[in-house]
Amino acid sequence: MRLPLYVVKTGGTKSWFVPRALQFLNGWHPKTIVEPFAGSAVVGLSLLNEGCAERLVLAESDEDYLAFWRTALGDSNFSYRVSKWTKTILGIPFEEQKPFVLASLEEMKRDDPGFWILLQTRCGFNGMKNGGYMTEKHRGGILSRWPRDLDQSLDVLYGLRHRITVMEDAFEALAAFDSEDSYAFVDPPYTMTEKCPGHRMYDEAEIDHRALHQTLAAWKGQWQLTYNKCGETSKLTTRISVVRVLSDGTEEIVSSENGALSGVPGLESNFVQMNSGNGRGGSSEKIELVFSKA
After folding, report:
1. In this structure, what CATH number is given to the domain that contains residue 228?
2. Number of independent structural domains in the chain
3. Torsion over CA of 134, 140, 142 and 146, rounded to 10 degrees?
4. CA dihedral 208, 41, 54, 290 (to 10 degrees)
5. Does some domain include residue 38?
6. Does some domain include residue 192?
7. SS3 state at 121
8. What per-residue string of b and e applies to 40-66 under the rule 16 or more CB within 10 Å gives b?
9. Rounded alpha-carbon distances, angstroms, from residue 43 to 37, 55, 57
10. I need a labelling partner for 184 at 20 to 30 A (CA). Which of 15, 34, 78, 91 fits?
11. Range of the domain at 87
């Protein structure tokens, strides 16, 4: 297997999940892969690049990331600009790198927004748009965040452009490709509760989680859904009952409700450690809940 096709970064990107997605598919080649909350789209892009499907459908509502996808898939000169910028930054002393990056970001924000978000997220903490500047000398300077061969990854991405469709609405993407020969990797912003981490990580953080669960419960294809480990996500496959204790000590069920994914045929749920298959990305100290519907 080649390394994950990992170009633009986002907070909470899923490069570590690529081997798990391949394991789930287990040789099955769906016609369409749908990634309704694209971000870096590392799972869908990697599977497409591995020949696991005919087409990839991405949905992205963040205008900055949309600018990246439009540039990466529609501008044949993009990889050349990245290659030229990379050669320049690697040719200047370390102490001049940060000023050069900051000046580049200011110019790109105005003139080249697709390049801006690529540079901003790769130099920012944890891939976030407002993550500061993470190219400390003890971590290797710019090379700790900006690969020498990033232009080659962009060339690969551009070569796949005719097999990639970009939409702006996650629910429209799922509805349009609701078919038994589709696979969806669903990694929504983790915002089910006020304490979930997605609120501080993304500009487009609020989604209708209940509607998403109802959509997936009825979706004809196979899918995998990832969430942070918390009580609300654990309730999705359980039956929740409200019980009242009567004066004689007996219990009476006042109401009862199944979780939105309860009873979905072929559904499994597992807690997994965020370990990447190639030894990079993720964290063995973090646990996520993965729902898989075959």
Report:
1. 3.40.50.150
2. 1
3. -90
4. -60
5. yes
6. yes
7. helix
8. bbbbbbbbbbbebbebbbbbbbbebbb
9. 11, 13, 12
10. 78
11. 15-293
d(CA 11, CA 130): 10
How is residue 4 written in tokens?
């994950």
Between the alpha carbon of residue 18 and those of residues 45, 194, 275, 289, the distances in Å are 10, 29, 10, 15
| 5: in domain | no
pLDDT tens across the length of the chain (294 residues): 466 898 998 877 899 999 999 999 999 999 999 999 999 999 999 999 999 999 999 999 999 999 999 999 999 999 999 999 999 999 998 888 889 999 999 999 999 999 999 999 998 877 777 766 765 655 566 777 898 999 999 999 999 999 999 999 999 999 999 999 999 999 998 877 666 666 666 766 678 889 999 999 999 999 999 988 777 777 787 766 445 666 777 765 554 467 788 889 999 989 888 764 443 444 545 788 899 999
Is the pTM value of this prediction over 0.70?
yes
Cβ(266)–Cβ(180) below 8 Å: no
> What are the backbone dihedrals phi and psi of residue 147, each rounded to the nearest 5 degrees, phi first?
-65, 145
Looking up tokens 């990839």 gives 56
In this structure, are residues 168 and 59 in contact, taking their beta carbons and an 8 Å threshold? yes
Does residue 7 fall inside a structural domain?
no
